[in-house]
Write a structure and sequence with these properties.
Keywords: Membrane, Transmembrane, Transmembrane helix. This is DUF4013 domain-containing protein. It comes from Haloterrigena turkmenica (strain ATCC 51198 / DSM 5511 / JCM 9101 / NCIMB 13204 / VKM B-1734 / 4k) (Halococcus turkmenicus). There is one protein chain. The chain has about 230 residues and is an all-alpha fold. It has one domain. It has eight helices and no strands. The protein is globular, with a radius of gyration of 20 Å.
């Protein structure tokens, strides 16, 4: 799976164009819209790979790309807020209980709160790829938040292995990207290109994992463009 993932874009006819555009968008992602477009592309990758289509998508139909990307970012933000809410409630509760001089019991309580917050962060990191995959295949923003439908997939060894492989690809990409950024001027661009390539490869793994868990034939997929999907 990992070998196939890292050659996913490489085997595309537009590999250079797609990778360079993606890298430039990652580089400019601080401006928000480029980040939205990157995640719109990720949604396309998930939509295709989850139905067994290994042909990498192109950067086209920018309106649809923006709509899907905005919805993906909304899912990311909504899930990303959960650990902050959990941590705020836990640390706030401990602080109110022990005051400014925590002592031994307070120190233990703060330690437990830290571990629970970390657990919430890991749970979110584990769930988000599945939420994005379900949104991409269902075409509804709400599909990414239907935890009752997500839970059976999250509990499988197939998803766990796919998620670990995807995390490994992202980690390796981040490491290489960090090394490349040490190169003056050009390094930032090369690092962004590698980051984009790693992100797409990782979500290729997630998409193919989702296809194994929820097989769908090409004939069963909808024909309407992404931008025409229902909002919820």
């Amino acid at each position: 799976m990992i070998t196939t993932a890292v050659t996913y874009l490489k085997n595309s006819d537009d590999v250079w164009k797609t990778t360079i555009i993606g890298g430039l968008l990652v580089l400019a992602s601080v401006l928000v819209l480029p980040a939205v477009l990157v995640w719109g592309y990720v949604v396309r990758v998930l939509e295709r790979t989850s139905r067994g289509d290994d042909e990498a998508p192109r950067f086209d139909d920018w309106r649809a790309l923006t709509v899907d990307g905005a919805k993906a970012v909304a899912i990311l933000l909504a899930y990303g807020l959960l650990p902050f809410v959990v941590g705020g409630l836990l640390f706030g509760g401990v602080w109110l209980a022990v005051g400014g001089d925590p002592g031994a019991i307070g120190t233990v309580a703060f330690g437990i709160a830290s571990l629970l917050t970390l657990a919430a962060m890991l749970a979110v990191a584990y769930t988000v790829p599945a939420a994005l995959a379900r949104f991409a295949t269902e075409g509804r923003l709400g599909a990414g938040f239907e935890f009752g439908a997500l839970r059976p997939s999250l509990a499988t060894g197939t998803y766990a292995v796919g998620w670990l492989q995807a995390v490994g690809i992202v980690f390796a990409g981040a490491l290489l990207s960090g090394l490349l950024t040490e190169i003056p001027i050009l390094g930032a661009v090369l690092g962004a290109v590698v980051s984009f390539y790693a992100l797409v490869s990782a979500y290729y793994v997630i998409g193919r994992t989702w296809e194994r868990l929820h097989p769908v034939s090409l004939e069963e997929t909808r024909e309407q463009p992404s931008a025409e999907r229902p909002a919820i």
